[in-house]
Amino acid sequence: MTQRFLVRVAGRLRQIAATVVSAGSENAGEIPALGSDGRLDDSVLPLGVGANSVQAVASEAIGAGKYVELWDDDGVLKMRLADASNNRAAWGYVKTAVDADATGTAYRLNTVNANHSGLTPGAHYWLGAAGGVTDTPLDAEAVTNQVDQYIGLAKSATEMVTVEHEPVYL
């Protein structure tokens, strides 16, 4: 429920809801409200403040919580599933599923990805296949043409504290 406040409009008191998501200048001067997650929406924050994220078109369907690579498709920035087996290093992850050819938001590493399942709290994880993770690092002596990238530490069964490590191309 969005809280409301009283304001004088044309000499009369009027009850108005605070703004949860801003549409830009048309919401200038309004009082912001916390969203259902208890946080301010990025749209009400000043430019340069907020989630470190990028919007890009998905070149394939991407599930919630999956790690993604950003890549150049003839001058168009796109995202696709990061994958250790085919040298697609993780740039970030998506919080919500993105359909192929739809625009989605990729969130940078060095944050908490809360869209996992089956993680072992305290365990370390590396980039796996198809945007997933594995608890086993690659053996540099046994594999070639793959990317070895440390992703982070499991905070809980569903949350990964991600880190931004330079991937190693084997």
Describe the protein's architecture and organization:
- It is a single chain.
- The protein is an all-beta fold and 170 residues long.
- Helix content is 0%, strand content 35%.
- The protein is built from no helices and 14 strands.
- Strands 3-5-4-6-7 form a five-stranded mixed beta barrel. The protein has a five-stranded antiparallel sheet with strand order 8-13-12-9-10, with no helix packed on it. It has a two-stranded antiparallel ribbon with strand order 1-2.
- A hairpin with an 8-residue loop joins strand 6 and strand 7.
- It is elongated.
How is the main sheet built?
Answer: 5 strands, mixed, barrel
User: How much of the residues is beta strand, in percent?
Assistant: 35-45%
The strand order across the widest sheet is 3-5-4-6-7
Number of helices, where a helix is a run of at least 4 consecutive DSSP H or I residues? 0
Instruction: Specify Rg, calculated over alpha carbons.
Output: 20 Å
What fraction, in percent, of the residue positions are helical? Answer: under 10%
Number of strands: 14
Outline, from the CA principal axes?
elongated
Uncertain ranges? none
From the helix content, strand content and strand pairing, which structural class follows?
mainly beta
The run of helices and strands is: EEEEEEEEEEEEEE
The overall pLDDT average reads 91
N- and C-termini, Cα separation = 52 Å
